Structures are given as structure tokens and as C-alpha cells.
Amino acid sequence: MSGPIKVLRTGLEAEHAAVYVLGVLASRTSAGSLASALEESFAFHRDARDALLARLAELGDTAPPGAAPAYELPGGIGTEAGVRAAALGIEQRATAGYGDQVAASTGPDRIRAIGWLSATAVRQLSFGGSPIELPGLA
Amino acid sequence: MVARVTPPTTARATGLSRRAALRLSVLAPVALAMTACSASEGRARLDAATDRLEAPKSTPPAPPNPDQPLVDEAIVAIDRLSATLGTIRAQHPPVADLIALHQAHLKRLGPASGPHSDGSLMLGGAPDVMTAVVAREKDLAATLAKLAAAAHDGDLARLLASMSAAIDQRVAVMA
How far is A111 from A105, CA to CA, in rounded Å? Predict the structure, then answer.
């Protein structure tokens, strides 16, 4: 398996998990700013998943990893604070994962990952995150 | 039945095996020749042999880093904006956080390969200075993202992309 395919597959697995967990978090959240942020995050990661699937197909990967039937849910999501913390964790892990994609890719794949890294770093703020020196690296 | 008895050899008679005796016969002339050489000649040959085994006295220069021009460009861009923010820091305390961020990023990048001008940027005639600051920060984030895309080294690309994202976070907070 080539390096780019390997890192994209890892990214795809993370997106499957993010889409699942964010869907659960959104279903447990009533309307409001948190619900809107979850909806936006869910849509972003769903689109990222689809983009990675398409890219892997372009690269000739005929058996990309599929979604698991279920993923382990983070603890403490019975409260709004818990949901916020869980969503922040997803975005922080995604930011680090996109950093890995930046490092391991070139050309359009890298440009896409740079954009995703920035988008998830900013979205961390809507889940209670604070600006840091090096998102995805710190 | 008559048992065969190997006739005794001179070597065996002196307590040496045949192999040892053979070694002696081969090495003896060499030893004699060596003892015939003067001590200084032997040392000279030893030194010459040692010299051949030693590493060259001077190592060739390291190949140039293909990313250095790109790193220099990032340093100049960050340094200029940081210097610009420094001129309005007293009137606009919130920029202190941006200056601290830029200085931390400069530290990560290390020194530039050569001197560069320390000129600062114009913040333009924007009625609200902070609006102009946000615009300059966005420009810097875009520059760092562009450099990340062009970097040869993956780790450097990740670092520059992360710096760009850090600025985007600050801009989002300021908006």
C-alpha cells in the first residue's frame, strides 16, 4: 500500500467515526448554538469522508475501509457540557489527523488537507476550545 | 595384523603439531625480514596505513536545504507583520496576543539564512485599525498556507499549515 493511500485510509477511518459520533451528539442536543455547531461539524466531516472515498477510488483503492456498525461513545455526553467536550475532542483529533495528511501528501491532496486543518482548528472554538500556538501539533 | 605406525616427524619430536610447524615455516622469513627493518621504517609504514583508514580531514559541505528560501519568506512575512503590530501595541492592547503568537512562530522557524529588511507594513487608511489588522493577519495566514503547500519537507509543511491555522483561530476570535 502506498504512503498516500495509507494516510488517506487512516483519515477515512477517522471520518467514519466522527460522522457516527457527531450524529449521536446532534440527536441528543436541542436546538440552539450548540446544535447548530454540531450540525455544521457533522456536515463537514460527512463531506470530508465522501471526498476521501472519492480520492481513494481515483488512486485505485478498490477496498477502502468502511464504517463500523457502531463506535464507542465518549463518556459524559448526558449533559450539554459533556456533548461540547466530546465534540471538541473529535475536532482536536481531526486537526491532528489533517496535519498528518499535510505532512504525508503533496499537490492537491496537501492543499485540501491544509484547508481542512484550518477549518477544524477554527471549529474547535465553537465547542469551547481556545486558540493555541500550533493547532494539530501542540 | 600389523598396526601402521606413522613415523615420527621432527615437529612432533619437538612438541609442535604439523600445522604449527607449517605456520612457522611460512612466517619465519617474514619475521626475519621485519626484524631486519629499522624501527623508524616500520613506524612510517604503520602511519601510512593508518592514514589510509582515517576519515578525510574535511567533510564536504551539507547540500543546500531546498526549503530554505521558503522558510526565509515565512520569516520575513511574520517578522514584518509582528513589527507593524508593535507600532500600535500601546493604543491597541489586544494585538499583544498576536505579537506573542508571531514571535513564538518565528522561534519555531529558527533564523533566516541571511539578513532581511525589518520594514513594517502600512495598515492603510482603514477607519478602524483593527479591521486592517484582521486583513493583514488573513493575508499572512494565506501566505503561510501557500508556503505549506509548496514545501518539500512534509514536517515543515505541517508546521506552516499549523501556523496558518493558529492565525485563523485568532482572526475568528477577533471577528
Answer: 9
